[in-house]
Structure formats: structure tokens, C-alpha cells
Amino acid sequence: MRAGVRLFCFPYAGGSEAIFRTWQQHLPETVEVLPIQLPGRGARIKEPALTRLAPLVQALSQSLRSAMELPFAFFGHSMGGLIAFELARQLRREGGPMPVHLFISAKCCPKQVGEPDTHEIADQELIQILRRYEGTPREVLENAELMRLLLPVIRADMELCNTYVCDPEPPFQCSITAFGGLQDNRSGRECLEGWQNYTTGQFTLRMFPAGHFFIQTCERAILEAIFREVAPYAARF
């Protein structure tokens, strides 16, 4: 069966496309999952991680355009939510195709809550911050060689978030769904509710009984919620 809708997935700071590798297994074939590998990680590890959002979304707009001939949606977790949002605005500026739905996960709406500034934080302190967020496996945090590769990417991603400025633009017409964790001290319900101001379409907020990285523990529930929204577009083909 041919896919009728595509789901572009953008990772959190320091994350890679591997976060989404199991998603296709738990979604029908009518939804094609396209995990996005950002510079500086995985197969693109030799490329420098970008520290500004504008050139990143400009590059993504061009590189992903050929895969946007079908209806498509964006999903982004934490930093990935910011990328998804700004990429949709970049496509609109260019007169390109627009997503049918935006899924913003564990990311406050712009100009609410920023990321921690990691410029002056020592490596060990940054590792402790990552440990508290509970999104990086302990075996990775305790592997000095892996952390030597990962920390520069995390610092670049944090700088990308810290330097982002949301310029005023009209709201989207497409619907927005925001996902959050009830125990997430970084991206709580109030700041997630602010996403309703960025669409004239339907806004939905779904909270899960977990912390910031509920994407790892609530995967099935997230995918069920996503499929409910994109299924009508998949059914057209």
C-alpha cells in the first residue's frame, strides 16, 4: 500500500534520527515516517552542527522539498519542535507546500522559556544537566569518548535555541497539536498552551504522565494521537 501522508520528524538537542527509528513499525503503511538527520550527528557527523536556526531551516526547506509532493506533517520534540515550527514558516515565506498539521512536543511557544545557556558551563556540569533531564542513557553519559563527540553538538544546539528570535508573522491555518509531560519542569502546560496563538485552525494539548522525555516512555500514545490527526489525509490515497 502506498503512503498517503508523510511525517517529518525532528530530534531534540543532541539527538539524531535514531530517536524515530521504531516509529514506522507502529504506524500504518499509509503514513510514511521520515526521520531527519541534522548536521553533526550520525551519517552527517563530519558536518559542523549549526548554531543558528535560520540557515538550518533554509537548508532543510531546499533539501526536503522533493519529498513534499504528498500531504505531510511535522513532528518535533523540544528543539525539534522549534525547527518544525520555523521550517513551516520558511516554507510559507518561499511560497512552498505547507504541512497539514504541526505536532510540537515538549517545547514552549516562542518567547516563553529559553534553553539553559551552556557557553560557560564546564563539561562535567553539562553532563549533570543531561543526567537530570533523563533523556541520555547512563552508559552514554559515562562513556568519555562518546561524550567527547556529543557535547559539542549539544552546545551548538543550545546556542541555536538561545539565539533564536521569533519575528512576528501571521498564524498558520493548519492545526497544531502540542504534547507535554506533567512532570516536565521546563515545558509546562501554561507555556504549551501558548501555541494556540500560532494557528487559526484547531489547537489540541495532550499531557502525558512523565517528564521532559516522555517521547521515550509514551511512544505508543503519541503515535496514536498523531495517527488520529493525519489519518484523513492518508485515506485520500
Structural account:
The protein is of the alpha/beta class and 237 residues long. It has a single domain, classed as Alpha/Beta hydrolase fold, catalytic domain (Rossmann fold, 3-Layer(aba) Sandwich). 36% of the residues lie in helices and 15% in strands. It has eight helices and six strands, in the order ββαβαβαααβαβαα. It has a six-stranded parallel β-sheet with strand order 2-1-3-4-5-6. Strand 3, helix 2 and strand 4 form a beta-alpha-beta unit. The longest helix has 19 residues. The chain is globular. The model has no long low-confidence stretch (mean pLDDT 89).
Detail the topology: elements first, then pairings.
Layout lengths: L4 E6 L20 E5 L17 H11 L8 E6 L1 H15 L7 E5 L17 H11 L4 H4 L2 H19 L12 E7 L7 H5 L9 E6 L5 H4 L1 H16 L3
Parallel strand pairs: 1-2, 1-3, 3-4, 4-5, 5-6
Helix pairs in contact: 1-2
Helix share, percent: 25-40%
| H-E order | EEHEHEHHHEHEHH
Measured on Cα atoms, how large is the radius of gyration?
Answer: 17 Å
List unreliable stretches of 5+ residues: none
First and last CA, distance: 9 Å
Number of domains: 1
Into which percentage range does the β-strand content fall?
5-15%
Number of helices: 8
The quaternary organization reads as: single chain
How many individual β-strands?
6
Under CATH, the topology can be stated as Rossmann fold
Name the structural class: alpha/beta
Give the overall shape, derived from the CA principal axes: globular
CATH class membership: Alpha Beta
Sheet of most strands: 6 strands, parallel
Task: Name the CATH architecture.
Answer: 3-Layer(aba) Sandwich
Q: What integer is the average pLDDT?
A: 89
**Neighbour order of strands in the largest sheet:** 2-1-3-4-5-6
The fourth-level CATH homologous superfamily is: Alpha/Beta hydrolase fold, catalytic domain
